[in-house]
Amino acid sequence: MRSPRAIAILEGLAATLIWASSYVLVKILVADIGPLTLAGLRYFLGFLLLLPFLRRGRGVQGISRRTWLDLSLAGLAAYTVGNGAMYAGLKHLSPTTVTFLVGIVPLFILFLGIFFLKEVPTWIQVVGVFVTLGGNAVYFINGLDAGEPLGIAWVALGVVGFTAFGILGRKVAKARSAGTLALTTIPLGVGGAVTLALALPLEGVPVLTPQAVGILFWLAAVNTALAYLLYNHALKTITALEMNVLLNLSPLATALLSFWMLGDRATPAELLGIGLMIFGVSLVQVRKSGSAVVAEV
Q1: What's the CA gap between 101 and 137, in Å, rounded?
Q2: CA angle in degrees (0–180, nearest 5) for 49-252-278
Q3: CA angle at residue 79 from 185 to 146, to 5 degrees?
Q4: Using CA atoms, how far apart are residues 25 and 77, in angstroms rounded to an integer?
Q5: Confidence of residue 257 (pLDDT cuts 50, 70, 90)
Q6: Contact 157, 76 (CB under 8 A)
Q7: pTM of the predicted model, to two decimals?
Q8: CB 220, CB 49: distance < 8 Å
Q9: Per-residue pLDDT reduced to its tens digit, 161-206
Q10: CA–CA separation, 44 and 66 (whole Å)
Q11: Residue 10 and residue 249: Cα distance in Å, rounded?
């Protein structure tokens, strides 16, 4: 029988593989739909899909005001700021480049997790984080193309949002102050609604093709509802740092999908960067029992 930690890592890997396709699918849609509108539609649809299950289960009973605030802030951080900015960045950057930029999130999680969550990593995990960041540096060794700095500025804002989301989500999951379904559904509802409310006056009502509708529903059902359920359930067992470094495996799958669907090509330096990232992620998952503050169930 697999241990809870092994199951959590598998859940994180499954979410990572699902999210690897998000950048490619969003890149297809963002040419015709405004980034805020796309983010708002995706996450609010994901909320609507999960809402009936939340009402049938334990629902929101027993959730404190403090937890409601944490969940609401997590939703705004991830879905309004994080993904809204990332979608804007995809107008200027390739999907693979965006995944590598988002890969610096674990560096912030490393320090903030120690301060806010009291989760102290091992020295091997710290080495793994910096090996992963080294993979990012190798990936960008050939420099940036014209127009990319604006995209990077947007993604940098998104990184701030994702970092806050990682800390807040782990805080609630670790304390068991909300069930996995509530931990997933409430932030989606708050973040999706606010993003959509901001998007419609700024970007107008989008004209959706049948293909766009199909991709949107796929993003809402699989890449949002299912993937975030897996992610949040895994956070009950593994630390915020371990999860967010694990997510850095997504560039490999994103690069393969971009090659197949968008015709993007990876250079030898980019492939080396991907290899270093995979090695760094592996190091972060190495942890002796009891070496980090983590709630095992």
Answers
A1: 10
A2: 110
A3: 155
A4: 22
A5: low
A6: no
A7: 0.76
A8: yes
A9: 988 988 898 889 888 888 889 999 999 999 999 999 999 898 888 8
A10: 23
A11: 13
pLDDT digits (tens, 9 = 90+) for 68-109: 999 999 999 999 998 888 888 877 877 667 766 776 777 778
User: For residues 281 and 246, is the Cβ–Cβ distance under 8 A?
Assistant: yes
Handedness of CA 151, 155, 156, 157 (dihedral sign): positive
For residues 260 and 230, give the distance between their C-alpha atoms in angstroms, rounded to a whole number: 26
DSSP annotation string for the chain:
---HHHHHHHHHHHHHHHHHHHHHHHHHHTTTS-HHHHHHHHHHHHHHHHHHHHHHTTTTTT--HHHHHHHHHHHIIIIIIIHHHHHHHTTTS-HHHHHHHHTTHHHHHHHHIIIII--PPPHHHHHHHHHHHHHHHHHTTT---TTHHHHHHHHHHHHHHHHHHHHHHHHHHHHT-S-HHHHHHHHHHHHHHHHHHHHHHHH------HHHHHHHHHIIIIIIIIHHHHHHHHTTTS-HHHHHHHGGGHHHHHHHHHHHHT-----HHHHHHHHHHHHHHHHHT---TTSS-----
Numbers of helices and strands, H then E, in the chain: 14, 0
Tokens 């980019």 label which residue?
270
CB neighbours of residue 269 within 10 Å = 13
Task: For residue 11, give Cα distances in angstroms to 134, 223, 238.
Answer: 26, 13, 11
